[in-house]
Fold:
Amino acid sequence: MNETNFDMVQKLPGELHTFKSTDKVDDDDQRLEYPVEFLNLLNPSGISEHELHLQKGAPVVQLHNFDIKAGHCNGTRYIIKEIYRHGLELEKLDPNGDEDDILQLPRIPMIYNPDNMPMSMTRLQFPIKLAFAVTFQRSQGQSVEHCGILLPKDIWTHGQIYVAFSRCGNPRNIYVWAEQEKEPLFRS
Structure:
């Protein structure tokens, strides 16, 4: 997924901007046990990646609630309108035509406190992810005119494939790529 998004953002015209996060362990006593280089390698679910490659015109999806009343919440899709050194200007992908369609987004601290690790960390980064390609779960509730479904491995449940196919209203605008080296997913 990340590779597909990175390949697509590089194809947009204009300058590619790279933003690296600031990561730290929350407990001062554990800072020497978990160096910053290790924290930078972590890409936990629900938190932005350490290194974001962004370009004007790229679609992104918001990962955290920012302003619920204005509709700027987890899962909202945007197009990057402007890129500044310390902020982004985003426009909702499906705008209503009011002032709430534009979001001035700063970097925010995101806390990662996993049950399976003896530490918690804070990542300071923009709470977004590139959205040329998204997972089945992230696509729920979204509608698109054209849909490409990438199936490099088996699908876990029939519900996932249903979500993928149901995002597009016109079945003629759905394109599927499936791994061809294995046995077919369905037999007649």
